[in-house]
């Protein structure tokens, strides 16, 4: 594996897309952010050099289907395209993977990890190494998504401003889901506050203590919640409760003897 060669091929692939488009730019920066997070988690877990390199290449390619989704629909919404399935299609059915890797010995692991990276629940992965990398890419993706939601232009990924978001209600079903320590189905979201809550509760789908340590070290939950001014009093109160619950979950996860 040669990550530098793969990254060069990725830059060539991106020439077919409008890199001045804010959504495309966001996804390019996100891709390399996920690469950094995948490498960081892998090093903290003391994985072998081959698995670290493999994790980086999976991270580089995990969202390759997003760019066609943005080109066709100018949208991140899951209903417009299954970007993970499309990524698998162009890489493995159309053979694009050979632009990034000459050898095919890691194809099954890469295919599984990309196909599963945005599933609501990770399941039906029997091979231990494929399962490791499926978990790694899911964690790395969520960690950089916390950065995206904290740092990037709010209008680009939400379609409305922070102030407009904070004036809205959280749907009762969404609020109740949080306290079951569950992530939120895209199809269950109704208001933009539902969307905002769904990004925060990605912590409930993290797999590794090393990933949760990164969340705690960056104080992501408090900082994310503070990004939006909650002018609706019910929403303001509920977000305080969500923050308390999430921070308690993080502490208990880090202290678990079973991880």
Task: Give an overview in words.
There is one protein chain. The protein folds into two domains: 1-145, Hypothetical protein af1432 (Orthogonal Bundle); 153-259, no CATH class. 36% of the residues are buried. It has 259 residues and is mainly alpha-helical. It has helices spanning 3-13, 22-44, 49-61, 66-73, 83-93, 97-100, 107-116, 128-151, 154-158, 162-166, 172-178, 192-200, 209-217, 220-227, 233-255. The chain is globular, with a radius of gyration of 18 Å.
Defining traits:
2 domains, 259 residues, 15 helices, Hypothetical protein af1432, single chain, mainly alpha
Tell me the distance between the termini: 30 Å
**Rg from C-alpha positions?**
18 Å
The overall pLDDT, averaged over residues, is 93
Question: What is the molecular shape?
Answer: globular
Poorly predicted regions: none
Count of the separate structural domains: 2
Query: How many DSSP E strands?
Result: 0
CATH fold naming of the largest domain: Hypothetical protein af1432
Query: Total helix count?
Result: 15
CATH top-level class of the largest domain: Mainly Alpha
Residue share in β-strands:
under 5%
Helix content: 55-70%
Which second-level CATH architecture of the largest domain applies? Orthogonal Bundle
Biggest sheet descriptor: none
* SSE string: HHHHHHHHHHHHHHH
Structural class: mainly alpha
């Amino acid at each position: 594996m040669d990550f530098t060669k793969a990254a060069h091929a990725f830059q060539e692939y991106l020439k077919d897309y409008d890199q001045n488009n804010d959504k495309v730019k966001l996804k390019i920066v996100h891709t390399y952010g996920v690469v950094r997070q995948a490498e960081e988690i892998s090093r903290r877990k003391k994985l072998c050099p081959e698995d670290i390199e493999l994790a980086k290449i999976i991270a580089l390619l995990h969202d390759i289907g997003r760019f066609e989704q943005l080109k066709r629909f100018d949208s991140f919404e899951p209903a417009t395209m299954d970007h993970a399935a499309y990524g698998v299609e162009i890489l493995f059915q159309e053979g694009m993977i050979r632009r990034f890797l000459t050898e095919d010995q890691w194809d099954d692991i890469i295919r599984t990890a990309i196909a599963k990276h945005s599933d609501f629940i990770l399941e039906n992965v029997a091979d231990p190494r494929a399962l490791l990398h499926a978990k790694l890419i899911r964690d790395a993706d969520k960690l950089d998504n916390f950065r995206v939601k904290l740092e990037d232009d709010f209008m680009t990924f939400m379609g409305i401003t922070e102030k407009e978001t904070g004036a809205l209600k959280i749907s009762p079903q969404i609020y109740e889901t949080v306290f079951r320590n569950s992530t939120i189905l895209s199809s269950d979201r109704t208001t933009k506050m539902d969307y905002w809550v769904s990004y925060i509760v990605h912590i409930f789908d993290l797999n590794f203590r090393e990933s949760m340590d990164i969340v705690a070290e960056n104080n992501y939950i408090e900082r994310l919640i503070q990004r939006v001014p909650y002018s609706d009093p019910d929403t303001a109160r509920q977000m305080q409760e969500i923050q308390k619950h999430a921070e308690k979950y993080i502490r208990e996860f880090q202290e678990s003897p079973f991880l």
